[in-house]
Amino acid sequence: MNAIRSALVFAWIVLSVIPVGIALLLFSLVLDDKKLWWWFAVPWLKGVIVAARLVGGVQYRLHGEERLPAAEDMRRVILCPKHQSTWETFYFPSMTSHPLAYVFKQELLRIPIFGWCMARLNMIHIDRSRRSEAWARVADQGRVLMDGGKWVIMFPEGTRTERGAQGVYKSGATRLAAATDACVIPIAVTSGRCWPRRSFSFRPGVIDVSIGEPIPAQGRQPDELMAQVERWIEAEMRRLDPDAYPD
User: Which of 28, 55, 154, 204 is least surrounded, with the fewest CB atoms within 10 Å of its CB?
Assistant: First the structure.
């Protein structure tokens, strides 16, 4: 039954992204990226989360929502979530008060329709083979996007980790925060409980998303700040999903 449910959700994702993506690309000729975000991207992303919930049985609980800055708050913000699954990449844009700018590898732009839409939404794509140029792009474009009302989202572990595992927390997000006087918001996500990485099958259950307190980066060292982010996320992961961390 789980296999059938999962197949239905993924079929909906693939079939729905085509008309929505084509509409976004066409309207990108006359609309700015913020309107494209709220009119096309966010409704489709919410639809994915709803399909996963109603068909795939993937529920979620949000903790600490009041810690997120309000829509009228124009502080520079960088979200630093735990990354266990593809689920959170769909979820965060659907629940934030500001448009998000992901930092992602430029190879994703080659994906038909989906990648083309990402290019039109004014995010930060980097060439990971050119590290110094990539960092300069993140710093320069990140400042401009945040000043324009967007939040930047960066997964500090860089890639998805297995449930119960801990990756290496890289300081890219906190380097950007220190360079732009942004605040960093750590986020714990137990998505590996229901949608394991490298899997096309859902496990019915509940994903917990916990928002930490915003941490101002002004006057902080990036490595020391990321160590604080890491401590909070990993402690919160063990509180939310103790079965995954028996030690």
Answer: 204
